[in-house]
User: What shape does this take?
Amino acid sequence: MSARARAAASTGTIHSVNISLEKGQAKTPVAEVEIVAGEGIRGDAHRGFGHRQISLLMLENIEEQRKRSGGGKAARAAGVLIAPGAFAENVTTRGIDLTNLRIGDELVIRRGRGRARVRLRVSQIGKECHTRCAIFQLAGDCIMPKRGIFCEVVEGGTVCPGDRIEKR
Assistant: This one.
C-alpha cells in the first residue's frame, strides 16, 4: 500500500453517533454526544463499562452486512434495520480503516482541521457474542464480534456526525 493510501485509510469522518438507554438494545442515532473522559458517552447505557467505554464500527462493514442479508429486505421484514446503531456501536465511522488498529493505538476526533477535541485509546478488538442477536439470526453472522473496536476515553468532548477521526 502506498504512503498516500495508508494516510487516506488512517483518516475518516464520523458518520453517526448512537446511544441506547438500556443494555441489549440497538442504539439510536442522535445529533451529538458528550464523551466523558474515563467513562464513555453521557446518557448511554454502556457508560462506565470498564475498558469498553466507547465502541466503533465502520459504515463500510454495516453496508457489507446489509448486502449479505439480501439488501436488508429480510431484516426490515423482521423489524430489524441494518443501519448505524443496529450493532450497538456508539460511533459509526466512514473512510477510516479500523481493521488496521491495534490495542494501544490512539484516535483523535476533531471538527474540521481544528484542535483535537476527543482522544480515544483502543482497548479491545472484537468481543465475544453471548447471544445470537436478530442480525445474526437473519444473516447467519454478526460483525461486531469481529469488526467492533472498543476504546477508553483519554480526553472527552462533544462529537457529532461530520467530525473528522484519525489515527494518531
